[in-house]
Amino acid sequence: MELVKLGKKGQVTIPRAILHSVGLSGDAPLLVETTPEGAILLKPAAVYPIEVYSEQRIAELERENTVPEDLQAQVRASLGQGD
């Protein structure tokens, strides 16, 4: 266990050895929460980019992922479902 000091602005510097031991770099995003006992927990946060699709892009994705009619018919025929 290492002793760190809380700065005037509420900042804490986490010792490099601690960061290294848990596989974090100095610029990693962290989640902060408290426990009922009054402990402060820091957990690595995963950050994922979010893509907002335009109507045009949605239509393009739907076209790319549509099963062609002739293939649908083949599958129905092989399952004995016919048209």
Secondary-structure element pattern, one letter each = HEEHH
Tell me the Rg in angstroms.
Answer: 27 Å
- Terminal residue distance: 71 Å
Number of strands: 2
Outline the biggest β-sheet: 2 strands, antiparallel
Which strand order spans the largest sheet, edge to edge or round the barrel?
1-2
Task: Please tell me what the overall shape is.
Answer: elongated
Q: Roughly what percent helix? A: 25-40%
**How much of the polypeptide forms β-strand, as a percent range?**
5-15%
The number of helices is 3
Structural class: alpha+beta
Low-confidence stretches: none
Q: What key attributes describe this structure?
A:
single chain, 83 residues, alpha+beta, two-stranded antiparallel ribbon, 3 helices, 31% helix, elongated
Task: Explain what you see.
This protein is an alpha+beta fold. It is built from three helices and two strands. It has helices spanning 16-21, 55-64, 69-78, and strands at residues 30-34, 40-44. Strand 1 (30-34) and strand 2 (40-44) form a beta hairpin. The model has no long low-confidence stretch (mean pLDDT 89).
In short:
It is built from 3 helices and 2 strands; from the N terminus they run H-E-E-H-H.
